């Protein structure tokens, strides 16, 4: 598990990265891009500053770490989350239930277009309870996810 400390000022957005995303930059760059996770988080920290947000991150290959982070988020002042559950997006009803129960808007992101890949990737267990889903834009999927989170936070309650 790797954590990325809070950067920026304003409402806090938690950025979660699931299994195998710690290998970004060296794992199948044709599908996932050449940037590693540190570079993606650096981009998000800069963008968060422009949007008046704060970000912090967590990458874990363990399903339970993502579930715990989601369920604890609202209680520790997180306003929204951007989550790339990796392959757990297709299989994890535990992550799905945590997204549904966490009490904050969650934007699901995927680097590749999961619907243009293997058939098993077409099913997204988490998507029906996410506030939005962004896929297929490479590392920009995270940027768009953070912008979507900012938009969701700016909407009247």
């Amino acid at each position: 598990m790797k954590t990325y400390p809070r950067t920026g000022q304003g409402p806090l957005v938690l950025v979660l990265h699931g299994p195998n995303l710690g290998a970004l930059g060296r794992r199948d760059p044709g599908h996932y891009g050449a940037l590693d996770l540190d570079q993606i988080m650096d981009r998000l920290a800069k963008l968060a500053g422009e949007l008046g947000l704060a970000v912090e991150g967590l990458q874990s290959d363990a399903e339970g770490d993502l579930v715990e982070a989601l369920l604890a988020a609202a209680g520790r002042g997180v306003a929204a989350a951007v989550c790339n559950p990796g392959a757990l997006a297709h299989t994890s009803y535990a992550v799905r239930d945590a997204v549904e129960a966490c009490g904050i808007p969650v934007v699901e992101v995927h680097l590749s277009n999961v619907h243009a890949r293997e058939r098993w990737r077409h099913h997204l267990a988490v998507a029906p309870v996410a506030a939005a889903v962004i896929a297929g834009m490479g590392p920009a999927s995270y940027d768009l996810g953070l912008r979507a989170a900012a938009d969701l936070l700016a909407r009247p309650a």
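The mean pLDDT is 90. DSSP finds six helices and six strands in the chain.
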